[in-house]
From TrEMBL:
This is LacI family transcriptional regulator. The keyword Transport does not apply. SMART domains: HTH_LACI (SM00354). GO terms for molecular function: DNA-binding transcription factor activity; transcription cis-regulatory region binding. Residues 3-57 form the HTH lacI-type domain.
Amino acid sequence: MQVTSKQIAEMCGVTRGTVDRALNNRPGISAATRDKILKVADELGYRPHFLAQSLVKGETKTLGIVLFDIHNQIFSQLFHSFEAEARKHGYLTYLVLTNKDQELEVEYIHNLLNRKVDGIAISAVNFGSKFEALLLKAGIPIVSFANRISAKLPYVWIDDKQATKAAVRHIADKGYRRIIFVIPPLRYKGTSNIYVPEQRYKGFLEICGTMPDLQYDIVSDRSYLTSVLQLVTQSQERTAILCSSDIYALEVARHLKAHQVKVPEDAGIMGFDHIDVLRFVDPSLTTIDFQVEEIGRKAAELLIENIRGNDIPLRTNVTYSIVEGESL
């Protein structure tokens, strides 16, 4: 049977208000009384009734985070830092995984709202006015990251367009005159939220438009490994392969190796994300590092600030940098 603050008050010969002050470290009681109450509470195995507290305080000290993919290391890294920051401020985090299922994503959002979480951070696969309205009517703070949902909801990420432009300039500075841009998520345009890939695609086209001497191809088909191999082996120019994520870069590198195409002698490769596993890769991969742990920490920090009633910016850009490897 759960021990109540009323029972502790009766055993200590004090009021429930005094017990509440002791258990929540509030002023208004003597040190001796506080110590006595805490000792009795510990002996009885007292645990606070968070549901009852939430009804009184209007908060549950819980957050929700909605991810569409945990196999991609950037999201597991991001969740780790988000949870650590939330815990530092006394919040418990509920993690839900949608596996890129749009209906499941909506269901999970309703589940989190029904559990009265104080705020939600989300990387969405849904998009459009109906989904935007659902989140805006939720009645709690919501922060998005990765795939942006709405200009009306706070968003934490990097400037993907500028980062992609920096990657292309870096490749060109290495003497490459042809770039193959591998970006498979583009084939989901119009059916899923692919804000990040779209921004990287736009950045790529914009920078290539300013470099008339640079030839380029864009590969987004399902058989992208076969397409890349064919383009590389047929190219008469020094060719680099820019991939929209490190995962694609590693898959391309493995496929090229299986067909006796050497990196970087025959073709250079550059990724995007700087996932942890890259420290085991040989040759080391040149990539874009966008401090994913900082994004997770910042998302939690801003969400909690908003829960406390403070205004937060609608757009927060985290810095990025080029990590030089041996693959270019």
